[in-house]
Amino acid sequence: MNQRIALVASHGPEAQAELAQLKQRYGDHAPDQADVIVALGGDGFMLRTLHRHQNLGIPVYGMKLGTVGFLLNQYHADDLEGRIARAQATVLRPLRMQAHSESGATVEALAFNEVSLLRQTKQAAHVRVSLNGVVRIEELMCDGVLVATPAGSTAYNLSAHGPILPIGSQLLAMTPISPFRPRRWRGAVLPATTEIKFEILDPYKRPVSATADSNEVRDVIEVLIRESTEHTTTLLFDPEHNLEERILNEQFVV
């Protein structure tokens, strides 16, 4: 197989200890000289790894040595090269967020899980929601609202009572967070090609922040979200427990 493996790990003591052992057994290459990146940690570290090395265009195989490991495989030190060779590939297409702030700055960021808007003070956010240039909700009163990818639909989106989306469904979930008005609106499932615009109404009295995964922008006045057509990332999963199966299983947890 002769795979060139780049090993990266979170700062947790267990992950660091296993990192040292794996380097002795399998060697270690710089990510920009490797065929595959092996990430040791939890889901948070996996997301940071995807963001940090996304431009390299090489797959990432994660092993769980953290608190949450939905995007990772179980940790086993043996036969790492064989597991990588047998792994199934899942291609993720992130969201692209363009956030305009009250100061006049524009920030662009990618999100593999979700883009979320949250109120910054005790005042509820007032948000106008438009899809493909058409206003769908004139004034959404809420603690926040998020847009999730299928891979991210089992994370924050699910906690906010949003729908679980199958991998490859080419859908996005738009889910309000503690909505007050419209009283009966509980979100929407949208085609992945939809361009979404959130306009913050009364941003000085009711300031709102926007976050793409962990990249936060404060005091936004307008946020545009669409699925990226330029970026993809490949995750590798053991065949017996791939991401598609995990997401399916989440729909039957009781």
Report on the structure:
The protein is built from 5 helices and 17 strands. With 254 residues, the protein is α+β, with helices and mostly antiparallel strands. It has 2 domains: 107 residues, Rossmann fold (3-Layer(aba) Sandwich), CATH 3.40.50; 133 residues, Tumour Suppressor Smad4. The mean pLDDT is 94.
Distance between the termini: 42 Å
Oligomer: single chain
What is the annotated CATH architecture of the largest domain? Answer: Sandwich
CATH fold-type name of the largest domain: Tumour Suppressor Smad4
Helical content stands at 10-25%
Give, in spatial order, the strands making up the sheet with the most strands: 6-5-16-13-8-9
Q: How many runs of DSSP E, i.e. beta strands?
A: 17
Radius of gyration using CA atoms only: 19 Å
What ranges have pLDDT less than 50 throughout 5 or more consecutive residues?
A: none
Averaged pLDDT: 94
Strand content: 35-45%
CATH C-level class of the largest domain is: Mainly Beta
Order of helices and strands: EHEHEHEEEEEEEHEEEEEEEH
Write a brief structural summary.
The chain is α+β, with helices and mostly antiparallel strands.
Show the helix and strand layout.
Elements (H helix, E strand, L loop, with lengths): L4 E5 L3 H14 L9 E6 L1 H11 L6 E5 L15 H7 L1 E5 L2 E7 L4 E6 L2 E6 L5 E7 L2 E9 L1 E5 L7 H4 L11 E7 L10 E4 L4 E5 L7 E5 L2 E3 L2 E8 L5 E5 L5 H8 L4
Parallel strand pairs: 1-2, 2-3, 3-17
Antiparallel strand pairs: 4-17, 5-6, 5-16, 7-10, 7-14, 8-9, 8-13, 10-11, 11-12, 13-16, 14-15
Tags for this model:
254 residues; alpha+beta; 6-stranded antiparallel β-sheet; Tumour Suppressor Smad4; Rossmann fold; elongated; 2 domains
